[in-house]
Amino acid sequence: xxxxxxxxxxxxxxxxxxxxxxxxxxxxxxxxxxxxxxxxxxxxxxxxxxxxxxxxxxxxxxxxxxxxxxxxxxxxxxxxxxxxxxxxxxxxxxxxxxxxxxxxxxxxxxxxxxxxxxxxxxxxxxxxxx
Length: 130
Description:
Number of strands: 8
Number of helices: 3
Distance between the termini: 28 Å
CATH superfamily: START domain
């Protein structure tokens, strides 16, 4: 299952956004208002829970300086990746798009498609909070 957020323009440099997204504790600023839990578990891993959804652990996997930050589920139960692609527009403005890719059975995919779509859309919309 592949989902993507709309591209959002942020009045920040690509370098700044890359640095912010590479620090897992900054993801708390991006979370939707219905967040039930957010906990940093280490330099490269955090745990979050939304009301009515199971808790998810995300680990910072890799990054391409100033253009891409790759996060992946720390559990094999829900295997997925979340990639933030950053494109510099000017020195002080960038476009960010989030791509979610998960390997789920059809039933699970049908159940989570709506909530996950809304979730990544919210993360993208909140990029200006970084």
